Amino acid sequence: MNITVVGIGYVGLANAVLLSQKHQVTMIDIVKEKVNMINQRKSPIDDELIVDYLSHRQLNLKATLDEKEAYEHADYIFVATPTNYDPAKNYFKTDSVDLVIQSALKINKEVCIIIKSTVPVGYTASVKTFYETDHIIFSPEFLREGHALEDLLYPSRIIIGEHSKRAERIAAELISCALKEEIDVVFTNSTEAESIKLFSNTYLAMRIAFFNELDSYTEARDLDSKKVIEGVCLDPRIGNYYNNPSFGYGGYCLPKDTKQLLANYEHVPNSIISAIVDANRTRKDFISDQILRKGPKVVGIYRLAMKHGSDNFRSSSVQGIMKRIKAKGIKIIIYEPLLKQDHFFNSKVISDLEEFKSLSDIIVANRYSEELKDVEDKVYSRDIYHRD
Asked: Which fold has domain 2-188?
């Protein structure tokens, strides 16, 4: 089949690589550099398996900037453009998805459009009505940053927001390109599929918030946080996973998805969903206060990325810590090898690690690194297990 994937990000590129093992896949993006990299079999994102597949596998994959080339002969168009939460409108910004649907249907009216971007609950039904077409399906992704292709090759489940033979064919193609043998598939309507995506990510945010609040309690009471977490997690109903404290949840999905789900609760009574959003702010307040209590004159921020192997700064929790500390007049310096500029939000970026260590009175690290072992007495981190 001819498949077009719109958006060269984690979701788009992982899906394109997966499907191009068996189908002709054309990627389209508005960034020329990304398009050129795909055509040179280079990955613009940090994902070890994607890099390997692009370099060593036979993939029927190309990229373009041209909409006509991308859409005209496509059997399926997978939309994986970025959406973000707009606090002013209390709603996701879906402009990028809207533009793709409009352009695609203008060029290829019969093409089946599969939305992979995260959208508000009810969005797919509304665009189907607006464009007077039933050729739009929502199918969410559940991908980890840095492990996106792995999560498609061994998916936790496949959700298709339609009951139809067409939906069964889409699921079958995704399964045929995966390596996992037994894959759970759920067929549902589009609004239910959108709900599954937002509730799944909000549950993960809730779990992060829970263990962060446990950690806040134990630190405030001078208790051994690791012992308490281990004792709690030995209950098999809770499980010893996804329980490593941090400065708060962040990244591409959880902050915006929790806020969007809360916005969808506008006329529905709730306590937990709003508390999850509030808990992330409370955690950053607590962490900032703990750092300020140590009386530093210069606070060093070790890495802006959320976790090891990540190249993503977006909504990272440590940026919230930075803002709170700077508001108290404390000088901030940053060590982040991925930054090319000399300053980041008016804070100096130090490219030399040893200089960064010597200048910092306290080093704040969301995730610990062996690079900091020689200055452990300076490091403030709630990373108990030294893993993501």
From this structure: Rossmann fold (3.40.50)
- Which has the closest alpha carbon to 177: 262, 60, 89, 275? 60
Is residue 295 within 8 A of residue 239, CB to CB? The reply is: no
pLDDT of 218 over the 80 cut: yes
Q: How far is CA 9 from CA 44, 292, 294, 378, in A?
A: 8, 37, 40, 36
pLDDT digits (tens, 9 = 90+) for 111-143: 999 999 999 999 999 999 999 999 999 999 999
pLDDT at 238 exceeding the cut of 60: yes
Please report, for the chain, the start and end positions of each structural domain, with discontinuous segments joined by +: 2-188, 224-380
Q: Do domains 2-188 and 224-380 have the same CATH topology?
A: yes
Active site residue 112: no
Which CATH number is associated with domain 224-380? Answer: 3.40.50.720
How far apart CA 209 and CA 92 sit, in angstroms, is 22
pLDDT digits 0-9 by tens, 90-111? 777 899 999 999 999 999 999 9
Catalytic residue among 112, 177, 233, 253: 253
Please say whether the beta carbons of 333 and 359 come within 8 A: yes
CA dist., res. 12 & res. 37, Å (int): 14
**Three-class SS state of 212:** helix
Helix, strand, coil shares of the chain, percent, nearest 5, are: 45, 15, 40
Six-digit token pair at 133? 């077409």
How far is Cα 238 from Cα 301, in angstroms, rounded to an integer? 33
CA atoms within 13 A on the CB side of 278: 5
Q: What's the CA dihedral at 345, 348, 351, 356 to 10 degrees?
A: -120
